[in-house]
Specification:
Chain lengths: ~170, ~170
């Protein structure tokens, strides 16, 4: 299971980069443009994804969920204000941190107890939760694509099936 | 890996039902309402997800990818015209077919060779591709949430993390 969770995370990095590459092709103002949607703008969506991913690796590294949520809240405003290139860099450095962490195989199946403020304690592992980080990213990439279309622009392909074809067909 | 893929699919069924439950609370016309987004309406998004999922289980059951794509094309118009309750029923029956198929453990790791019209042959297994079915569903649930907000309505929570908390905390 852990190898699969690691591979899914690598897909997540590829999919985020597809979105950044596409956003950098568009007029600069699109990134902060107000759009009536799930979030006020695409920068708000990417900040939310970044701060969630940051929160989870803090939890994986021993922080409590409430401390991780507090950290995210503290960084929210400054993260939302960033420009697309700065955001791309933040995502890149965070993915490097994840990859370093996930390469320590013993981390993947280390038992975790997560105290959720609203629903008690969950006993889990990093490899069980990592698919949530990826699934959460996919969900918000789905938001971003709809928001881009709403603003009149196409998005970028980010399907896991496409990623599998690209990575596996080359090796075939 | 296969148990995890099965569990991820069960999450997908739960997440789809969350969306159907929410859509059924809203004014009936929302389902077919034209919205400038990734698809012309929410019914088009759910039809696309349904026909993709149908296509994949046909491939898992031995059909070629091009035959499965042809089947989806054939059913497209009639699927898009369905009302929300009919769509919910289609999804339910398809998920029962998936669960029956996935309970045959030997199916999960059966070698598959998939001829993609545009990028050659991929050697894979059902359990390796199943996460694509789920990830694809999550992506389009992300579209639907943005489309609902665009139309002025909140969506429903469908996070994998929430699903894990709900299913694991009860058993703790």
């Amino acid at each position: 299971m852990s190898d699969f969770a690691f591979k899914l995370y690598e897909y997540n990095v590829w999919a985020n980069q597809q979105i950044f590459n596409r956003l950098k092709e568009l007029p600069k103002e699109i990134y902060h443009q107000e759009i009536q949607s799930v979030f006020p703008s695409i920068s708000h969506v990417l900040s939310h994804v970044y701060l969630s991913d940051l929160g989870w690796i803090e939890v994986f590294s021993g922080k409590t969920l409430s401390d991780a949520l507090a950290l995210a809240e503290q960084l929210k405003e400054q993260t939302e204000a960033k420009e697309i290139e700065e955001m791309e860099d933040l995502f890149l450095r965070l993915s490097e941190r994840y990859i370093l962490f996930l390469q320590q195989k013993e981390q993947l199946n280390k038992p975790l107890q997560i105290q959720n403020p609203s629903s008690g304690i969950m006993k889990t592992t990093v490899s069980e939760l990592l698919p949530h980080v990826v699934n959460h990213g996919t969900y918000h990439r789905g938001n971003i694509t709809a928001m881009l279309r709403q603003a009149g622009y196409a998005s970028a392909p980010t399907d896991y099936g496409l990623y599998l074809f690209m990575t596996k067909t080359e090796k075939a």
